[in-house]
DNA sequence: CTATTGTAAATTGTCAACAATATGCAATAT
DNA sequence: ATATTGCATATTGTTGACAATTTACAATAG
């Protein structure tokens, strides 16, 4: 690692932030399942640090709705039931509509190219039936849309909700060769509508897309 | 203080939570102005505790978007410019619409009575021209609406945005005898529409109400 | 055998001390 | 006079230790 990079790291990164990022990553990736207790001392010694920064990271995760404190009993990864997941979706739906409007309105050559690239990669994963990779690109596509609204508050609010949704067990939709092709089609249409800068249509499409996801979530959780 | 209360406090409250609540209260009340540096040691000794819980509270406030860390330089109350305030409003507007729908749909005799009481109190403050008190009741009215949607995620998301807006200097609208009467009229109409359980009208009214607030915010900040 | 009590281990809550970094100011050199 | 260097002070970042609470389990009484 070169000197300027190291300096920048030391100037910006604290142990607290590192722990926070690492734990959030593990939770979002499903490595730390909802309900798992997180013990300060264990995490601290694993990372070779003291308990202070771990506790600070816990407080940040608590505010993000990813873990829950129970005084004197410790911290556990938050568990979401179907009702809570549906409530989050209820908030997400109008935000997706807003994202559709703004991203279509604010589209630049750079963001257009970036979105196009992701859709193209999605097409390739469908061709080779790489469902896990498709799922990741799906998240990325929607994350980029939120980012390209150029509204940090919207992006932040949106991300909060999406990360919390990962605490619901059957959130990640189990794609099969049939549904994945339909999903690809839908995302291509969304991209084209945004690329055409059709604000009203983008808004309607993304709202409907979120509503459909909610329906699938209900169906999936009732069948299991 | 009686024993059961004390026990409940000890079982649930930690120093971290107390510090967090106290600081958030001071920030929201405008006692700690945007840009103010917060020194750990000073706050700790003021409250008669050590720096640990204060740091944890800082991390929580950071995640709520109320303070900002600068490594090795400390924490300051976050400052919002007009653009950021408008971006927050952009998110708030569709949420207000959703609140209108849900609160009209979910209205119970209890919530109805509670809202009616607040509107009545607002009327009294207008009669006696108590503008600060009216402003407080105004916040309370909208907070209750969000709460009565019975969607904790929506309430949480909404509160985040509203608290952050208080970081913008000219957020609290300066009422005068003319505008306060108009505002009261508007809130009475909102209440009546919700009481009539007119979902579509409640949605439209609250969206428009939020949009009008945004316009006033722009006007107020340009004139100052 | 069941229920209760007591005790030990583990874990969290809090604190105080140490290390590292930034800030302000005086001294010096150009 | 201005800029730079060096030092003292203040503040944050991190750590390890102590206090308080919970949990698990064994011992005891009924």
UniProtKB/TrEMBL annotation, chains A, B:
SMART domains assigned: FCD, HTH_GNTR
Keywords in alphabetical order: DNA-binding, Transcription, Transcription regulation
Domain HTH gntR-type: 13-80
Gene3D superfamilies: GntR ligand-binding domain-like, Winged helix-like DNA-binding domain superfamily/Winged helix DNA-binding domain
Nuclease in keyword set: no
UniProt xrefs under InterPro entries: GntR_C, TF_FadR/GntR_C, Tscrpt_reg_HTH_GntR, WH-like_DNA-bd_sf, WH_DNA-bd_sf
Top-level division of the source organism's lineage: Bacteria
Gene Ontology terms, MF aspect: DNA binding; DNA-binding transcription factor activity
Record protein name field: DNA-binding GntR family transcriptional regulator
Species this chain originates from: Azomonas agilis
């Amino acid at each position: 690692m070169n000197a300027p990079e190291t300096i920048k790291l030391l100037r910006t990164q604290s142990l607290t932030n590192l722990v926070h990022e690492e734990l959030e990553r593990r939770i979002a990736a499903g490595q730390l399942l909802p309900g798992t207790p997180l013990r300060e001392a264990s995490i601290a010694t694993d990372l070779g640090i003291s308990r202070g920064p771990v506790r600070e990271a816990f407080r940040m995760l608590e505010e993000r709705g990813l873990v829950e404190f129970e005084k004197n009993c410790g911290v556990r990864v938050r568990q979401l039931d179907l009702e809570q997941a549906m409530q989050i979706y209820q908030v997400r739906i109008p935000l997706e509509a807003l994202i559709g409007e703004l991203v279509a309105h604010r589209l630049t050559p750079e963001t257009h190219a970036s979105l196009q690239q992701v859709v193209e990669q999605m097409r390739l994963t469908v061709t080779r039936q790489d469902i896990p990779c498709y799922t990741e690109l799906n998240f990325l596509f929607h994350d980029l849309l939120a980012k390209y609204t150029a509204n940090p508050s919207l992006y932040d609010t949106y991300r909060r909700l999406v990360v919390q949704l990962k605490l619901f067990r059957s959130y990640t939709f189990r794609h099969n060769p049939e549904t994945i092709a339909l999903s690809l089609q839908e995302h291509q249409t969304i991209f084209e509508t945004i690329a055409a800068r059709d604000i009203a249509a983008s808004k309607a499409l993304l709202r409907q897309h979120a509503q459909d996801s909610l329906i699938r979530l209900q169906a999936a959780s009732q069948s299991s």
